[in-house]
Amino acid sequence: MAPVDSSRSNLRRPEIGGGIDQKLSKPKPRLDGDDFCAICDNGGNVTCCDGGCQRSFHLTDENSERSKCRLILGLSKEQAETILANDDKDFICKNCKYKKHQCFACGELESSDLSSEPKVFQCEVDDCGRFYHPKCVAKLLYPESKLEALLFKVQVAARENFTCPAHECIVCKGGENKNHRNMQFAVCRRCPTTYHRKCLPSNIPFEMKKGPNGYMQRAWDEWEGPDGHIIPRDRILIYCTKHEIIKKLRTPKRNHIIFPDAKKHREPQILVDAPTEEDIPEEGMLNNAEPSQSPTPVANDQNQCSCSSPIDSFAPASLFTYPHPGTCGWLGD
User: Fold this and answer.
1) How far is 224 from 238, CA to CA, in rounded Å?
2) Half-sphere exposure of 49 (CA within 13 A, CB side)
3) 303 to each of 46, 82, 84, 178, 252, how far by Cα in Å?
4) Best-predicted range by mean pLDDT (21-35, 41-55, 148-162, 211-225)
5) Residue 173: which residues within 8 A CB-CB, separation 6 or more?
6) CB within 8 A of 224, min separation 6: which ones?
7) Is the pTM of this model over 0.90?
8) Which of 90, 115, 176, 295 could potentially form a cystine with 25 if both were Cys, beta carbons 3.0 to 4.6 Å apart?
9) Longest distance between any two alpha carbons in the chain, whole Å
10) In this structure, are residues 88 and 130 in contact, taking their beta carbons and an 8 Å threshold?
11) Is 44 left (phi over 0), alpha (psi -120 to 50) or beta?
12) pLDDT mean across residues, the chain
C-alpha cells in the first residue's frame, strides 16, 4: 500500500471537524483510552478517564509502584475501590473535573474551561488529549514565520479548531498511515515530537545496550498482553532525546503531570446551550454562594487499550519552563 500524503495545511485545519467544539463547553467523548498509566508509564489494570483527556491511570494497589499512582491521583484506597466497584459510573480525573490542563508545550497548568475564559485549548483530533496555549502551538507549527504564527495564535484564541504538531512527522511533515509500516508514527510521550518509522533517528533505539558505551531503550513497538503474548503496535511509543532516561525507572522523571488543588477550585459547569435568565443568579445569591461539594467520581470500565539526528525535538527548549505534562506512557515488559 502506498503511503498517504497529507499536506501540512490539511493537517492543521481539516475540513471535517474533530471531536471537540471549542465554542461549546462539552468535553471530547472518551474513546478506547490508553493501554498505559499516564503517571508511571506501565501497563496492567488501568482505568481511563471519562472527562475527555484520553488518559488512563492505575487505581489498584497490585504493587507498591501502582499504589504511588493512586496516591498521586489524590485517592485513598477506599475511594479507588469505590470507583472500581461502580462500572456504570464515570471516572473523571482532577484535570478534567476542574477543567484545568497543562499546555503540552510548556507544561503550565491553566484553565481549559470553555464555558468561561480558557487559556489552553485541546487539539481537535478525536483521540488526542493534548492542550496548548495559542502562542505555544503557533510557535511550534510556524517556527520560521512570526506573521503566520501570530495569525494562527489569534485563530486558536478565538476557539477555532486546530490540529496539533503531534500529528505530523517532524522530518518530512507527512501524516500517519497505520497500515503502512514505514509510515507508522513514533510519538513522544513527553512533548509534541513525532516521526514516521522511516524517519526515526538512530539515537532513539528499540533496545537497551549495556556496557561503557551502552544506552537506554527509547522506543517500543510491541508490548506484552495479559496472556503473556507479544502484541505488535501500529503506533510506536518513544521518549525523544530531549528527555533524560532515569536508569532505575527506564523512563524520564515522573514529575510531568500536575493536578489542580481541589481545595482552591470550584467544579465548572458544562453548558450545552446558551444560558437563559433563569441560569443567571441574582446579586444576593452571588454574595452568599459557597463552593459546591461534588461527589467522588467513579469509573465505568477497565481498559486494556490499545531521536542521531540534527533534530532532537519538535519543541524548542525555550518553551520547556515547566515539567512536561505527557499524556500516557508505556513499557512493554
Assistant:
1) 17
2) 25
3) 6, 17, 12, 21, 24
4) 148-162
5) 8
6) 43, 230, 231, 332, 333
7) no
8) 115
9) 71
10) no
11) left
12) 77
Q: What is the pLDDT of residues 260-298, one digit of tens each?
A: 986 665 555 444 444 444 444 454 443 444 444 444 444
Q: How far apart are CA 245 and CA 251, in angstroms?
A: 5
Q: Which residue's C-alpha cell is 467544579?
A: 267
Amino acid at 273: D
CA distance 164 to 161: 10
| Cα–Cα distance measured from residue 162 to residue 319, given in angstroms and rounded to the nearest whole number | 19
Bridge partner residues of 230 (DSSP): 224
**Do residues 156 and 124 make contact, with C-beta atoms less than 8 angstroms apart?**
no
C-alpha distances in Å from residue 207, one per residue of 19, 100, 108, 200: 36, 36, 32, 14
Look at residue 310 in the predicted model and tell me its pLDDT.
38
Under the banding of pLDDT at 50, 70 and 90, the label for residue 219 is very high
Q: What would the pLDDT profile of 71-108 be if each residue is shown by its tens digit? A: 999 888 898 999 899 877 789 999 999 999 999 999 99
103-145 pLDDT tens trace: 999 999 999 999 999 999 999 998 899 999 999 999 999 999 9
Cell 551502552, residue located: 214
List C-alpha distances in Å: 142 to 10, 80, 150, 206, 291.
Answer: 14, 43, 9, 31, 42
Pairing of strands 194-196, 185-188: antiparallel
What would the grid cell of residue 43 be? 501497563
Residue 259 C-alpha cell reads as 493536578
Amino acid symbol at 7: S
Nearest to 198 by CA among 184, 178, 179, 218: 184
Amino acid sitting at position 40? C
C-alpha cell read off for 101: 490542563
